[in-house]
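Bit of a strange request maybe. I'm writing a small parser for C-alpha cell strings and I need a real example to test against, not something I typed by hand. Could someone generate the C-alpha cells for this chain?
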Amino acid sequence: MFLRLFQHYFQPLLLLLYLQPSAQSGEVYTESQKSTTTGPSVNYVISSIFGNFFVKNNLSLKDEDVFTKVLAKSLCECRTACWATNVCQAAALVPVEDHKECHLAKEGPHKTTTQYLQGAIYLFKEDSLPGHYHGLMKDNLTYYEPPEMMELEEGKKWCNRIPGHRLVIIKTNDQLKTLQEISLKTLGDTPTPKLIWMNLKKPLQSNEKIWGDGTLVKITEVWPSLVFGDALQTNVDDVEEFFKFDENTFKSSSPSTQMRILCQANPVGVYW
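Reply from user aminoacidic:
Good idea to test on real output. This should exercise your parser:
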C-alpha cells in the first residue's frame, strides 16, 4: 500500500524536485543532446494520478503561445497550476529578474514553439500530443505515433518539434525488436498500415547507409540482424536512397511517399 502511494503521489514530486535549479549554485541539470550514453534526451514522468508528462530543461515558450502567466516558486507549483486548469497542456517555469513565472499554454509542442532560455524548465503532457503514445518500451526508449501518415521530411519536422524526440533510429537488437512489435500493432478499429519511415539514408556517391544522427549502420550492434531489400534503381551510386521498414525488411522508397511516423525519445539515457 505504501509503495503504491509512493509511486502515485511522491515519486513524481521527487523527480520534479530533482529537476529544479540548485538553490546554492544556480546550476540546472541539463540533458545531453548526443546520441550516445551520456544522458537522457528528455525526462519522462509516469503518474497514474497526474497523467504522464515530459520535462525538458533550458526551454521556454514564446509569448504568443502563452495564455496566462502566474507566479511559481518551483516546477512542482508550475505543474500544479497547469493541471488545475481545464485547458493547459504545457507550461514553462521561467526565471524573471528576482522571481519566477509559470507560463501556461493551451497546446502541446506540436502546435507551439519552444525556445532556448537558460534556467527555464518546460513540461508538456503526454496526452497533449494527438495520435498514440506507445510509452516506455522494453528498450528503455519511448515511442510516439502521430495520427496521420506523412512524407519523410514532414515526419522528421514533426518529431523534431517535440523536445527530446527524433524520427526513429535503430541501433541495437532490443530497438529492432521494439520496432517489429510496434509495426504489428493495430491502432483503433481499422487495420494499421505496417510501413514505417526510418531516419536512414544512403547518400549520393556512396554505398554506406547512415542513420539520421550520422552513425554508420555497419558499426552498430544491430547491423548483422538487418535485412535490406533491393534498391529502387540499379545504379545505386548515383542516387540517394531513403528507407522504410516493411515486415522486417528495410526497403528503399520515394521520400514523397506517405507512411507511418514514429518519434523516438530517450528518457533513461541508454545508447540510441
